[in-house]
Structures are given as C-alpha cells and as structure tokens.
Amino acid sequence: MKNWICIITFISLIYFQSTSASTNRELEIYKNIRCLVCQGQSIHDSNSDFAKDLKQIIKNKIDANESNEIIYQYLADRYGDWILFNPPIKKTTLLLWLIPFSVLIIIAFALYKKTIFKRE
Amino acid sequence: MKTKINILILILLFSIFIYVFYYALSSNTKNNPQVMVNKKLPNIELTSLFDQEKKISLPAKSKDLFYIINIWASWCVPCRDEHSFLMRLKDEQKIQIYGINYKDSSSNAILFLKNLGNPFYFVGLDVDGKNSIELGAYGVPETYIVNSSGIIIFKHVGPINENIYQKIIEIIK
User: Fold this and answer.
1) Which whole number is the average pLDDT over B116-120?
2) Is the dihedral of CA B171, B161, B45, B153 positive or negative?
3) Which of A45, A66, B130, B145 is disulfide-compatible with A41, CB 3.0–4.6 A?
4) Are A36 and B32 inside 8 Å of each other by CB?
C-alpha cells in the first residue's frame, strides 16, 4: 500500500511539475508578445482574436518542443521586431550603445595624453 | 600637420556619429504591417470550404503572373463592403483569387457567397486562425498579391476600396 502511495505521489509530482513549467513558459512568452491590434497590451492581457490565435500557436510550438528563440523569431519574421516587448539586440542598436562610450574613451585618452605631455 | 590629422579624425568620427543616430531615428521601429512584403509566401495547406476532401497548398503553382489571396469571413462587415471589388477583380481582370475563410461557420460562408457572388478560384478554411497568422495577418479582411515565384508583392490590411482597387490593377496589369 505504502509503495503505491509513493508511486502515485511521485507520478503526480512529475505531472504537475511539467504542466506548471509549461504554463510558466507560456506566460513568460505571452507577456513578451505585443498584441498588435490592441492598445499597449500584451497578448497575455488581451482577449482579441489576434491574441487568442497567437496564444494557441505559441502553445502548439511549446508542445512541439520549440525553443523560445525560435518562437520569437517566427513571430518577428511575420510581424517585425515591434511584436516583441524585448526586441533582440541588432547591429544598429549595438552601435547606438557603443558610440557614446567610445567617444568618451577617446576624449579620456586624449585628455590623459595631453596632461602627460604637459607634465613632461 | 598632426593637428590637421587630428581635426580630420574628429570630423570623421563626428560624421559617423551623426549618420548612425540619423539612421536609427529614421528607421521604422514601430508597427509595420508590410513586414511580409517581398518575402516568400509561407507554405500553407488549405481545405476547401465546399468539399472537405479537396485540399490545396500555397504558394500556388499558377501559370499567371500574379494571384490574389484574400482573408475574409461572413461575419465581417467590411468584407461585405469589399466584396464587389473582389467580384470586379475576378470578372474584369480575370485574376485568380484564393479566399481564406477566417474562423467562420461553413454554412454562413456558403450563404454569403451564394447571396453576393463567389469571386474565389478556391476558398480554403481557416478554422483556428493558424493559416492567417502564418501569412502575418492581423485580422479580416486582408489582401495579398503574390507573383508566380511565390513572393508577396503587395499587402493591404482592411477592406479594398476604389483607391486600393486601382492600385491592385496597376500592379497586376
């Protein structure tokens, strides 16, 4: 009897663990997808047809063991990066971040060289 | 000489700086419904509205230079408005139109086509909206022009009006 209880508890634990993990993953993705036909909502917050369709497709893709990156890429290919609340870093975005820092470094280097030169 | 080189380097850096910021500001980072234009039409399989046994897949193997894909539903009021333009495209321009019937009841869709005329070469079902999402659609109605290589060359979100009709003719003529 004890063995049976142990087995059932073990199986149900595994089952609930896997379903909650899948639900958490779904939620994480839903919250990062913009509902393009709603005003500033994610598909998680929306009940529009568009949001419902996307949720179903995402669910199917999760069930098919597709990674988050592949799912985001699938949606970005069809709707652009705007559909993602957290868009991927692109070359242009990286340049925008790097330029001010590199300018600062150049100025600092120039100032340093100038002071050294003056001291000498 | 050294100062001149330094000034030149500074001007060059400043120009790159301005160019990158100008490019980033002018690029469209907001919603762009035209993302699918100039891309290959994704592969979708459609089951006929009239005969569940009949299936076709898109991109279609068409002998014509272009064909149209229209997403519609009988419950969609703007679809009713644009229907006469679809009829004109079929009758006057002799272009093949593939209809995708979005989340509709089959009996209502058939009645809709019986009452208003059937402009479609083939009507496929999209019971769960999956096919429409595959095309990058936002809802109904939506119209795409696809060329014989399977590339989407035009996309219109919303009902076709006289302006859009003229635009479509301009493209397919």
Assistant:
1) 97
2) positive
3) A45
4) no
